[in-house]
Amino acid sequence: MCAAVAVECESVPVTLPPGELLELLGWIDIRSKTCKPVLKNAKKMFKSAVFNLQEANADQVQEFLNSFDTVLSDCDGVLWINNTAIPGSPEAMNYFRKMGKRIFFVTNNSTKVRSDFALKAQELGFIAEPEEILSTAYLVAHYLKGIGFTKKVYLVGSNGIGDELKAVGIRHFGVGPDQVKTDFKSMSPSDMDPEVGAVVVGFDEHISYPKFMKAASYLSNEECLFIATNTDERFPKSSSIIIPGTGTLVRAVETCSERKALVLGKPNDYVRKFLESFGFDPARTLMIGDRCNTDIEFGVRCGFQTLLVMTGVTSAKDLEKMRNEKTPPLPDVVLPKLGDILNLTPS
Length: 347
Ligand SMILES: [Mg+2]
Description:
Layout: E1 5-9, E2 12-16, H1 18-23, E3 28-29, E4 34-35, E5 51-52, H2 58-66, E6 70-73, E7 80-81, E8 84-85, H3 89-98, E9 102-107, H4 114-123, E10 133-135, H5 136-146, E11 152-156, H6 159-167, E12 172-173, E13 196-201, H7 209-219, E14 225-228, H8 246-257, E15 262-263, H9 270-276, E16 285-289, H10 292-302, E17 305-309, H11 316-324, E18 333-335
Parallel strand pairs: 5-18, 6-9, 6-16, 9-10, 11-12, 11-13, 13-14, 14-15, 16-17, 17-18
Antiparallel strand pairs: 1-2, 3-4, 7-8
Helix pairs in contact: 5-6, 7-8
The chain binds magnesium ion (MG).
Magnesium ion binds near residues 76, 77, 236 and 291.
């Protein structure tokens, strides 16, 4: 039997006896002890409630699991960190699949082709097929092919994007080092390739001043497309070392070109448009992520349910601050780690 719980409505403290508490569960966010219609709608049962699933009872967990057919999961910080699976994540994703959920791995990482991502996932214990990987490298190629692009791409990025472009017959160049020379400012218009019709910016460990010059110079032609994979500020941390993310490069190119990129990765809703071809229902889709400003924002924009796990970028402290300040996007439900869901489900 539940003990009485003090809640606060409109700043007026109220103490509820156990029976009433159970009756009112549909209107109370237990964790914050404030009145909210968190469970009223079965399809969006925990909308932006930051509800700790570990505090749900068995019926609520079951109802939650029954409320979605498609699972989209971010990868870094949710399923793995670098080359190590986060304990319990493979079993949780495989459990969703066993329940009959459709699975997609949605990553802003642009450094690998889909088959390499699938292989990595499989090696870490996940059941995964290349067709289930929605990486930004693939999305760039899919987008350009979809609009009938036939010119060349100047690519500030890696072979992950280059190989996906090649797979759909789009020519590109720019991958690899472009060293800074003493006369780096002497580039002339004749050094520019007139066939370039798009600049694509993804993660590029060889970023250099000449690359910024070339990207901005191609983009000075307003007919040249400007596409970015994502705007993540940094990689998930596994130590005190900060690894700048693709957003660092995108903002730099935006600054020197005085243009705004079309961003295809999360939180942009291009993935939703892509998935519409599979006939999925956004309201019955769960997005799992470790970052509020990309994964959860993406889920909210697309009308998905959202689950935040605390194994990546957004920390419990960050979340508490956002929650206290009511700063969106707030996740529907939270768990310390994805694998914890297995402890809540019938074995
Ligand atoms: Mg992540």
